[in-house]
Specification:
Elements (H helix, E strand, L loop, with lengths): L11 E9 L4 E9 L2 E7 L2 E8 L4 H11 L11 E7 L2 E7 L2 H9 L18 H4 L14 H13 L2 H6 L3 E7 L4 E7 L2 H15 L6 E5 L5 H10 L3 E4 L5 H10 L2 E7 L2 E4 L10
Parallel strand pairs: 3-6, 9-10, 10-11
Antiparallel strand pairs: 1-2, 3-4, 5-6, 7-8, 7-9, 11-12
Helix pairs in contact: 1-6, 6-7, 7-8
């Protein structure tokens, strides 16, 4: 039975605070990003609870299902029901019986915190799992990567309002952004982007992914599963992310800001690297 869900109808909420500077203090009302427990349940069996922004939830369900290996194709997600309760949201995801059985063997034992894409995963083998190899022979100009990052910065309405969320975007080869998704969790933002791209049938191998975060290894895993040939982040990657990207055939770039970008793996995909 649902209760008062008014706090979860929007990705933001109005909150009061006291702003203090050297000379004065004042009461202010600000928009803050919502952080909501989202349960992902496959054929009514709970699989994981992730802390997420309550927006683009159908995209989230499809993207999470793909990057977690629950389904192999977006069309295997037959239906997504969004049920809002007083303390959170449940995504009731209908999948074929064999996919539901797969989700049961991979169920997370703990909830996933906002900043953690793999929290609660049951074992190391599931965390450092074998990935499909990215073989697409793409080639991108550094200026295209930097253009995409600039456009991403300009296409974050939720972050502009709250200053508290990450964004993931997919850009065409020339750096123009085609899809952007936001979330308080960087991995959730990417799952939402993966879901949006899969649902629209986008030829992801013809472009690349940009993100407003560090390059952590779970993001590398998700982009490899998506099949895009390059991931660029505004901050540094971790050493594990570089090793995983190298093994997966993915081009990984970091520090993509201003007029510079550093390419760490499979550099032949970036002109001049």
């Amino acid at each position: 039975m649902t209760g008062d869900i008014s706090g979860y109808r929007s990705a933001t909420a109005r909150m009061m605070g006291t702003r203090i500077d050297a000379n004065a203090r004042e009461e202010v009302e600000e928009r803050l990003a919502e952080e909501t427990p989202v349960t992902l349940a496959y054929n009514l069996s709970p699989h994981a609870v992730m802390m997420a922004t309550p927006a683009d939830l159908e995209d989230f369900a499809v993207g999470f299902s793909l990057t977690e290996g629950i389904v192999d194709r977006a069309r295997d997600v037959e239906r997504v029901g969004v049920v809002r309760y007083d303390r959170g949201i449940e995504l009731q995801i209908e999948v074929p019986a064999e996919a539901a059985a797969r989700s049961g063997t991979r169920s997370r034992r703990l909830s996933g915190r906002t900043g953690c894409g793999i929290c609660g995963t049951a074992d190391v083998d599931r965390v450092l799992r074998e990935l499909p190899r990215v073989e697409w022979p793409a080639r991108f100009e550094p200026s295209a990567v930097l253009r995409a990052m600039r456009e991403l910065s300009a296409r974050q309405p939720l972050n502009d309002e709250t200053g508290a969320v990450h964004a993931a975007g997919w850009a065409r080869a020339d750096g123009t952004l085609a899809q952007v998704r936001e979330d308080v969790g960087r991995h959730n933002a990417l799952d939402k982007l993966v879901g949006a791209l899969a649902r629209s049938g986008t030829a992801v191998e013809q472009g690349f992914v940009v993100m407003t975060s560090r390059g952590s290894f779970e993001l590398v895993q998700k982009v490899a599963i998506l099949g895009a040939p390059l991931l660029a982040t505004v901050s540094a990657p971790t050493a594990l992310a570089v090793r995983v990207a190298e093994q997966a055939g993915l081009t990984l770039a970091g520090f993509a800001r201003g007029d510079r970008v550093t390419v760490y793996t499979h550099r032949d995909r970036v002109a001049g690297a």
